[in-house]
Write a structure and sequence with these properties.
The protein contains 17 helices and 20 strands. With 518 residues, the chain is of the alpha/beta class. Strands 1, 2, 5, 6, 7, 8 and 20 form a seven-stranded mixed sheet that branches. Strands 10-16-11-12-13-14-15 form a seven-stranded mixed sheet. Strand 7 and strand 8 form a beta hairpin. The longest helix has 17 residues.
């Protein structure tokens, strides 16, 4: 068995221990959640919120030089940081993030992404989406300096890669965690985890952070489960080449942002395949069970407002664990679509390239024998009686039936979380340390431990029951990363050395206390 870290291991990590596969913390996952956790573990304090005075920051810098650095390794099935995350964005050709520039993995400086764009002359990659003009946010200084602009995908990825380079760690890529055990340290002084990897390595760590997202099953409506030519959107790359010579549209099923992004992606593919697509009829049919909802964010904007976020979190925590899964659904309400995507959707409808139907797909959807196409019956709203202010909101009556012939059916209806999904990492962890599960999500502790007394943490959407409806978003990821880092004592040194009364360290104050005792 090969116990040697590969060439990507940082030299300073090996210098901090007698064993080059023993670490203080192992982070499983190299996406935004894993990077935010790495940043939180290394950040001595945060500039966010102005919680420290200048004198406290000066004392922090002095004490910081005396602190031992944490040895941290990051394990991921991809070859580098952000690769899996970027693959999904590339699949849908997403140019801009939905989250604003203030949502990023740098836990030290809340303005870091904006500063990075200015420093590299890339301010044009920050899109003014209009969310900074919302009445609820306009009073915040953040909106007036550009923190509510949307960064381009390329800018965000470059920023994350630059941040990862600046944080000391060992990256072990192109491998999976196949087993996790809790055992006494090889030196016999403290307990450690042993993580067996698919490449034959063993990693030992005092604490483990799972930043892998929630395992689950793609939601496929029952009525089309047995239809041919049905794909989940994550496999788009395997069938992006359209069937030539077949003048039929593609059907996309779903009512959230991902479904809209898939529909727009398929329109782009159709335009490249046909020089003049206007006038040929719709190339894409988007079917949703309810009217599309136009919102900047899936959840209420109060979750992003520093003045109200703590109350939102408190209200969520007051729900008993058994009702939090329902609170998560109610907060998201089935997803929404930002205005910039809705504008593209409406324009495509007006051009005749896209047909949007609000209705139900009938269960007897079928295909003609040996046909490369599928015929689907949809009960939907008849005439698009639209409101001028919200042109995408149709009437409420399903009073029409259409029999449609399509090339492919692409499903983008979300995922049913299931932390006990067979062969998943979370299923393996649950088999070792069983805990309560609600609606497929683990009931982790308030400090995001898998269970009390176990230094195994979860961040990201996997911890939704104790993070909130924004757990899978960048803002929620930031909060979760800091909770886990605080539980591991990454900033506990500040209490006695920096945040305490500085005069306590003076000798004369000690003399005065002794005199008072007399």
């Amino acid at each position: 068995m090969n116990n040697e870290i590969d060439a990507t291991a940082s030299k300073d990590m090996a210098a901090n221990t007698n064993y080059n596969n023993v670490f203080d913390v192992c982070i499983v996952g190299a996406g935004p959640a894993g990077l935010a956790t790495l940043s939180a573990l290394h950040s001595p304090y945060s500039l966010e919120g102005g919680t420290m005075t200048e004198s406290q920051k000066e004392r922090a810098l002095k004490y910081l030089k005396l602190l031992p650095k944490k040895s941290i390794c990051v394990v991921d099935q991809a070859a580098g940081w952000m690769e899996s995350w970027q693959t999904n964005f590339d699949t849908l050709s997403i140019e801009y993030l939905r989250s604003p520039a203030l949502a990023h993995p740098d836990m030290f400086d809340p303005n870091a992404l904006l500063s990075y764009a200015v420093r590299h002359g890339r301010e044009e990659e920050l899109l003014e989406s209009g969310c900074g003009d919302m009445k609820k946010l306009f009073a915040l200084g953040q909106s007036q300096i550009g923190l509510w602009k949307l960064p381009s995908t390329r800018l965000f990825v470059d920023f994350c890669l630059d941040l990862a380079k600046s944080l000391s760690h060992c990256f072990i890529g192109e491998t999976l965690v196949t087993e996790v055990n809790h055992l006494n340290d090889i030196r016999g002084k403290k307990e450690r985890f042993r993580l067996a990897l698919s490449n034959g390595m063993n990693i030992y760590a005092t604490a483990v952070v799972l930043a892998v997202g929630a395992a689950g099953h793609p939601i496929v409506p029952t009525c089309i489960q047995r239809c041919p030519h049905v794909h989940h959107w994550t496999s788009l790359s395997t069938f992006t080449k359209r069937k030539e010579g077949i003048n039929c549209p593609v059907m996309v099923v779903g009512g959230g942002l991902t479904a809209v992004q898939v529909a727009l992606k398929q329109l782009n593919i159709a335009e490249k395949a046909t020089s003049d697509s206007i006038g040929l009829g719709p190339q894409v049919i988007l079917v949703s069970k309810r009217p599309l909802v136009e919102k900047h964010f899936d959840i209420n904007v109060e979750w992003f407002d520093l003045r109200k976020a703590n109350k939102c979190i408190s209200d969520f925590y007051h729900h008993p664990m058994g009702k939090r899964s329902q609170a998560l659904k109610e907060a998201r309400r089935g997803g929404s679509v930002p205005p910039m995507y809705m504008m593209q959707l409406v324009q495509a409808e007006q051009d005749g390239r896209l047909l949007c139907l609000v209705g139900d797909i009938e269960s007897d959807a079928y295909k003609t024998s040996n046909s490369p196409t599928t015929r689907v019956r949809v009960h939907h709203r008849a005439s698009p009686k639209r409101n001028v202010d919200k042109p995408h909101h149709l009437n409420d009556t399903f009073n029409a039936v259409s029999l449609l012939q399509v090339k492919e059916i692409i499903v983008a209806c979300g995922v049913h979380p299931d932390c006990k999904k067979p062969r998943s990492l979370t299923a393996m962890v649950h088999s070792k340390w069983p805990i309560q599960v609600e609606s497929g999500l683990p009931c982790v502790t308030q400090d995001l431990r898998w269970k009390e007394g176990l230094d195994l943490f979860v961040v990201g959407s996997l911890g939704s029951l104790n993070i909130g409806p924004d757990a899978g978003n960048l803002m929620g990821i930031r909060r979760a990363a800091q909770i886990a880092a605080n539980a591991l004592g990454s900033r506990s040194w500040l209490r006695g050395s920096v945040l305490a009364n500085p005069f306590e360290a003076l000798e004369w104050s000690s003399v005065l206390r002794n005199r008072n005792k007399r």
